[in-house]
């Protein structure tokens, strides 16, 4: 059995398309579980009416993404059997009919490895990344050139279309509460790797991500004139992928020494650059002159 976990908060149309992708799979032994974290757009009611086979677990609105996955894992661990899998998937993604069978096949022929997927843009149909590597002391999405092998090694994985054998969670427990939103996926993959699980990406398992969903950090970086609140949100909001605390903690925990020193310095310099150049110089000083 593959238990497909989908955290959701509003945006029902995305969740609907993601569920429909699972229902069309050639691999049929799938239980879809939506962890709804306080949606106000009627998502739970619409799911109950349109997809009665989907299990809905309700949160209180404070789970965040990794907390939602953790709640789903807790549920699955109570009912899973040996040989089962947990597949994590973001609500704003869809995929072809052989997606799950590709992931399961690669895992099983590689001693039940953890297997991620290729992420493609819905607009360009080009890869956003192939795998994730440590570069410059930090974890980065990576694009490869030339003909791709059927599988790619990865230093970590995210939760957008990643298959975990159930024994991963039996051995290392669950997603860490230290990372409620961003970086929690990287952290659990690193922890699993340290405990002997191989991390692979199947280049034949393709996951499409909607281009219109731009995160907080990207939205701030796109603004010509940034405010002090923008700077605070960029560095400290849970919604920001550039959150200094979570980024630094991930590096300290899981980047090998001495690269972790470079990683911490890199995060510090990135933060100073935004504060001194993008905010103080471009937005405050030159902004006043304009």
CATH class of the largest domain: Alpha Beta
Shape: globular
Largest sheet: 5 strands, mixed
| Portion in helices | 40-55%
What is the overall pLDDT average? 94
Description:
This protein is α/β, with parallel strands linked by helices and 290 residues long. It has 2 domains: 2-209, Alpha-Beta Complex (Spore Coat Polysaccharide Biosynthesis Protein SpsA, Chain A); 216-289. Helix content is 42%, strand content 22%. The protein has 10 helices and 12 strands. It has helices at 12-23, 43-50, 64-77, 99-109, 166-172, 184-194, 216-222, 228-236, 244-254, 259-289; strands at 2-8, 30-36, 55-58, 85-88, 93-95, 114-121, 127-129, 131-135, 138-142, 151-153, 162-165, 199-209. The strands form 3 sheets. It has a 5-stranded mixed sheet with strand order 3-2-1-4-11, with helices on both faces. Strands 5, 6, 7, 10 and 12 form a 5-stranded mixed sheet that branches. A two-stranded antiparallel sheet has the order 8-9. Strand 2, helix 2 (43-50) and strand 3 (55-58) form a beta-alpha-beta unit. Helix 9 (244-254) runs antiparallel to helix 10. It is globular. The N and C termini lie far apart (61 Å). The mean pLDDT is 94.
